[in-house]
Amino acid sequence: MSFLKKISYTDLAMGKSQNKFFSQGLKFQCQGSGKCCVSRGEYGFVYMTQDDRKKMAEVLKMTPSAFTRKYCEKTGGIWHLKANPDGPECLFLNPKNQCEVYNGRPVQCRTWPFWPENMNTRAWRRDVVRFCPGVGQGKVTSPQKIQKTLEEQEAAEAELFGPSSLK
Ligand code: SF4
């Protein structure tokens, strides 16, 4: 699952510098609400790295170029999934709130909610806890696992938005 994403260079920098926020780990277990796969306000895009496009194409048994032509577009020079013409839901969210391309879902979907901009108390309480019913559920995710997830997300963002986005 993912939380459709916005670009915020300021928040990215803030998340990077405050990663002691999760030194005790954080509780999170997806509840399958599908909320994170619905565009809302400034959170509007599922960004797609080159590898994301390749993996999703594989799951859909398409070539990366055919997949990109059919399902992706660029805004500000950055690839993301096309908007769903029928509503704010992601093109791949089915009526049961399940991802139709789960095994090939992009990095930002796999790493939610451990995104750089969320790794501080203010954003966690303001954006994440209020929005996502999975926060506070299940077992504690260890700081090591959060760090690894965060690094995966940071690498994707560096590819998409440029390395300077994380400084
Ligand atoms: S690709 Fe799948 S997990 Fe990601 S936003 Fe779309 S439906 Fe949700």
What gross morphology would you assign? globular
Number of strands: 4
Treating each run of at least 4 consecutive H or I residues as one helix, how many helices?
6
Main pleated-sheet profile:
2 strands, antiparallel
- Rg from alpha-carbon coordinates: 15 Å
Strand order of the largest sheet: 1-4
> SS-based structural class?
alpha+beta
The fraction of residues assigned to DSSP E strands is: 5-15%
Give the termini distance in whole angstroms: 27 Å
In the predicted model, the low-confidence regions spanning at least 5 consecutive residues are 7-15
Share of helix, binned:
25-40%
Could you give the order of the helices and strands? HEHHEEHHEH
Q: Name the bound molecules.
A: iron/sulfur cluster
What is the domain total for the residues?
1
Average pLDDT reading: 88
